[in-house]
Specification:
The protein is an alpha/beta fold. It contains seven helices and 15 strands. The strands form three sheets. Strands 1-2-3-4-5-6 form a six-stranded mixed sheet. Strands 7-8-9-10-13-14 form a six-stranded mixed sheet, with no helix packed on it. The relative contact order is 0.14.
Length: about 280
């Protein structure tokens, strides 16, 4: 087993869950979105890589939406008492201060095409079973933000973002607001791997696109452009859809803001220039 390896969990349901293995630091799980996803993680650990769930040190989420956090409690029940849950500091305000979740935009033009495109992998009833209503971005659920594992949460310190180590292998967390206010990605510089949550989604043709279903369209584009400027990525592990891979630069296979960007000449130009500049700096 390599020092760091990212394993997409088969059959993880609504969102894609990932298991990261590290020879020294054990296991870390990202985006456990349902009770079914928690079971899929357990099956993969026990039967595929032959590891105990007690080796899971961290359960993390790229953002606080129900399809990315809805199975954390179910998985945590089977982990070590020392296992911690890693969240962006804004989640503290959701849980303790009554701050509502980010209001989402483009439900029809953003979310619906993703659903129709089949990137939500619902295969069993447990894929639609959740720990509770926490993380549901619908207006009548946005104030029901309670979790049973509040004492197990470790909040990233605000002054350590937008980019900081998380204490697991070579992995860092980078703040990428846009899909939601508290969205983050997980990045390994040595391997060029990036777990993006719902910032980037994957297509069946091996390409990806910036998610149009978001809290702030301008902000999600700025977050994407900032990543292209500052990091080099070979493999993108999206929140929904297949893995995106390129030996040179995986960002080259990501379309900015879907097909709409092709009609927006100024935005397309700015992102293309950012990508070109980033690649030239890394090459030179």
């Amino acid at each position: 087993m390599g020092v760091d390896m990212v394993h997409p969990i088969p059959g993880s349901g609504l969102a894609q869950a990932y298991l990261i293995t590290d020879e020294k630091d054990g296991l870390m799980v990202v985006d456990v979105g349902s009770v079914g996803a928690a079971q899929a993680v357990e099956d993969f650990c026990v039967h595929t890589i032959k590891r105990s769930l007690m080796a899971i040190r961290i359960i993390a989420a790229t953002h606080f939406h129900i399809d990315h956090i809805g199975g954390i409690a179910a998985l945590l029940e089977k982990c070590s008492p020392k296992t911690t849950v890693l969240f962006h500091p804004l989640v503290k305000a959701y849980l303790k201060a009554g701050r509502p979740l980010s209001p989402m935009r483009n439900w029809i033009t953003g979310l619906l095409p993703t659903l129709i495109g089949g990137t939500f992998g619902i295969r069993k009833w447990s894929d639609l079973a959740f720990d509770g209503p926490a993380g549901a971005p619908l207006p009548f659920f946005r104030d029901l933000q309670r979790v049973s594992y509040a004492d197990r949460i470790r909040f990233l310190e605000g002054n350590r973002l937008p980019r900081s180590r998380i204490g697991f292998g070579g992995w860092e967390v980078i703040a990428t607001p846009g899909h939601t206010e508290e969205s983050v990605v997980f990045y390994n510089e040595a391997s060029g791997e990036l777990i993006t949550g719902d910032l980037i989604l994957g297509r069946k043709d091996g390409r990806g696109y910036v998610n149009r279903f978001c809290w702030d369209g301008g902000q999600i584009r700025r977050s994407f452009a900032a990543l292209m400027e500052t990091i080099h990525v070979r493999i993108i592990f999206p929140g929904h859809g297949p893995v995106i891979w390129s030996a040179e630069d995986a960002f080259r296979k990501v379309d900015g803001f879907g097909e709409a960007l092709a009609q927006d000449g100024s935005s397309k130009g700015s992102i293309s220039e950012t990508r070109k500049g980033s690649y030239e700096r890394k090459s030179g």
